[in-house]
Amino acid sequence: HKKITKVCCLGAGYVGSPTSAVIAHKSGDLQVTIADISTERISRWINATNEKELPIYEPGLFDVLECRGRNLHFTADIDKAIEEADLIFVSVNTPTKKKGMGAGFAADLGYVESATRRIAKVATSDKIVVEKSTVPCRTAQSMRKILEANGKPGVHFDILSNPEFLAEGTAIKDLLSPDRVLIGSLDNDRGKSAAASLAEIYANWVPRERIITTNVWSSELSKLVANALLAQRISSINAVSAICEATGADVDEVAYACGLDTRIGPKFLKASVGFGGSCFQKDILNLVYLSESLHLPEVAAYWKQVVDMNEYQKSRFTKRVIQSLFNTLTGKKIALFGFAFKKDTGDTRESAAIALAKNFVQEQCQVSIYDPKVEEQQIWLDLSEPGVDSSLTEAKKYVTIAKDAFEAAKDADAIVIATEWDAFKDTELDYEKIYEQMNKPAFIFDGRLILDSKKLEKMGFKVEVIGKTRSELSFE
Ligand code: NAI
């Protein structure tokens, strides 16, 4: 197989940049270039002199960017990056379609297609094109057709599927020590040789037995299924949390007892206000759409329930807040702790906090939001409708963004924990001081199971925890 010396990655986002940075960091003899259509994003990657100035927050990311300028380069000159590379990762966004056929379910493959067309147009030498974005099963086939129909005569393209399994918040750790690297290729000599070339790059730091090869379709489908299975565990435990709240069982105890069974395992069994992030919902809906297109309505309905349960969990939690606060939020103030979809990231895509904030605003409640990493501008973007100016004005009537937890909770009737940031734990934050400045009775709703409720109750808080008995029931 061919030894790769130059790699390029299209898409400098949450996946493209950390992945390419780790590849460059671990492969000194490889030149890695990351290209993006957003010149603003690229210049932030180039010019950041510290962690805070990077376009995304990810622990450890700044350290692996040490190779910037040496064998890691960022550019907006996409054509040059394509032309020079032997191997091209396509790591562009694949959001859920908003309009047209499959709207609300199918993936919008417009960005993948335009990146693919660009490669076909520009390439004057053979390329290995690697599908890194999460795509529906058989997308590689479409990419191959586009490349073959539009490529220059004599230029050959090999296509691989290499889905990314990193999780935001632990991306660098996951990339440095992945559970597995999955490479899907065509089952012929050229395909296998291309897969071997890519495997050789990963083998710079990943043990060989963790680099697995399959056919292209298995590889594409595995990524959708992995996310569906992970999200399914969360929805399962969240469904159980509703039973716990109504009976007096404790969801943490149930999860612990069940997780000790080695066939089940302890991970991903934490009840919460619901999962978020750019991938889980999108990828399940993708799987649902795929199942429907394959005329498998029972399969589609089965996976759809995972998303439905997640929506239910968010509205159930909102209801509990309203009921506890004497059935009205009008004119009250809620401090929303956390806006990112999980801790250790600044990403808010599909964050449960967005739904909660919107629900509270609907109840004409003042909401003060504090998140240690999410940028203010992003919060306003998430709370308004794109293109509708009045929606931002409306949001600003009810929402304020606080500079710290104390400011958010001042004069509030309740605190709602939406993100499990370590900084919100009772071992980190001075809840006694917070309590003094709140309206009484002061409520705290732990939507992430991070607080010691007994300790907070002693301070005077009324504590309501997801998956644990409602205090109104415990009075009986
Ligand atoms: P993102 O939105 O952060 O980044 C995508 C980037 O691609 C953007 O900066 C955009 O400007 C750029 N782009 C779009 N079209 C382009 C083109 N033709 N040429 C060059 N650049 C172009 O998206 P993110 O989160 O990095 O996701 C990328 C893919 O990876 C998606 O398919 C996603 O499902 C998948 N994925 C995401 C994970 C995550 O944790 N965010 C984890 C695993 C997979």
UniProtKB/TrEMBL annotation:
Record SMART domains: UDPG_MGDP_dh_C
Highest taxon of the lineage: Eukaryota
Known EC number: 1.1.1.22
Pfam families: UDPG_MGDP_dh (PF00984), UDPG_MGDP_dh_C (PF03720), UDPG_MGDP_dh_N (PF03721)
Enzyme class of the recorded protein, top EC level: oxidoreductase
GO cellular component term of the entry, any: nucleus
Active site positions, chain numbering: C279 (nucleophile)
Family (UniProt): Belongs to the UDP-glucose/GDP-mannose dehydrogenase family.
Full protein name: UDP-glucose 6-dehydrogenase
Organism annotation: Yarrowia lipolytica (strain CLIB 122 / E 150) (Yeast)
